[in-house]
Amino acid sequence: MRQVLRPGRCRLQPVEPALDVVIPTLNAGATLAATLAALQGELSIAIAVCDGGSTDETAAIARRAGATVVTAPAGRGGQLAAGAIVGDASWILFLHADTVLEPGWANAVRAFTSRRANIGKAGYFRLRFDSADPRARRVERLASWRARRLGLPYGDQGLLMARALYEYLGGFKPLALMEDVELVRRVGRKNLVPLDAEAVTSAVRYERDGWVMRPLRNLSCLALFMAGMPPAVIARLYGR
């Protein structure tokens, strides 16, 4: 019997979930509760929080929300891979711990998963930051263009795919960074589909590093990765 989240409550249900949600965490106590609360909806889901060694209340918050907590060495790629093997639902949603899906996300997921042709595709949400800064809107537009034209949605937009496709592609690699880019490149630009809902992501890193410098840093990492530099080397250069 698996632990399944039902709308408005958490309890054991003798049914298979419609969706496995995998969330990698590392000291995510400040944001995780809101992320998990937003997942309460019309879908039956099973949540795996894969923790990389948090020293705050992350694990306790996850367990109170009814999620399964899995531990793995720190590193988002490896954590995502470890979380994915916990469940067995036909569809998987990979989500960051500081991303809150807007109301209506379940309808967007249902619309995507109900189409047989999407078995070989992956969906991603529209990015929005929890900031009123006008510069946030520019970064959002850039992210939309990058996802649509280059086929490179980042992990903070979420990634929804059939488990069969995930396993066929070989899953997430245990990379120091760029694990999301590496996987969506294997999915392929023509097989990436925008979902009709927003993923509201924390703007803390952009407010700390700057609305210009943070995107430039991300672009530099992407350029080095696309040029063939090992992710571990890029991580050392940028202090990850």
Describe this entry's structure for a reader:
Mean pLDDT is 92; it is low at 1-15. By secondary structure, the chain is of the alpha/beta class. The protein is built from ten helices and ten strands. The chain has a single domain, classed as Spore Coat Polysaccharide Biosynthesis Protein SpsA, Chain A (Alpha-Beta Complex), CATH 3.90.550.10. 38% of the residues lie in helices and 23% in strands. The strands form two sheets. The protein has an eight-stranded mixed sheet, sandwiched between helices. It is globular, with a radius of gyration of 17 Å.
Note the topology:
Layout: E1 3-6, E2 9-12, E3 19-25, H1 32-38, E4 45-51, H2 58-64, E5 68-71, H3 76-84, E6 91-94, E7 99-101, H4 105-113, E8 122-129, H5 134-150, E9 159-162, H6 163-169, H7 179-187, E10 192-201, H8 204-209, H9 213-226, H10 231-237
Parallel strand pairs: 3-4, 3-6, 4-5, 8-10
Antiparallel strand pairs: 1-2, 6-9, 7-10, 8-9
Question: What tags apply to this protein structure?
Answer:
240 residues, alpha/beta, Spore Coat Polysaccharide Biosynthesis Protein SpsA, Chain A, two-stranded antiparallel ribbon, 10 strands, globular, disordered N terminus
- Total tally of structural domains: 1
Structural class call reads: alpha/beta
Proportion of beta-strand residues: 15-25%
How far apart lie the N and C ends? 39 Å
Uncertain stretches of 5 or more adjacent residues: 1-15
Helix percentage range: 25-40%
Strand order of the largest sheet: 5-4-3-6-9-8-10-7
Q: Please name the fourth-level CATH homologous superfamily.
A: Spore Coat Polysaccharide Biosynthesis Protein SpsA, Chain A
CATH topology (fold) name = Spore Coat Polysaccharide Biosynthesis Protein SpsA, Chain A
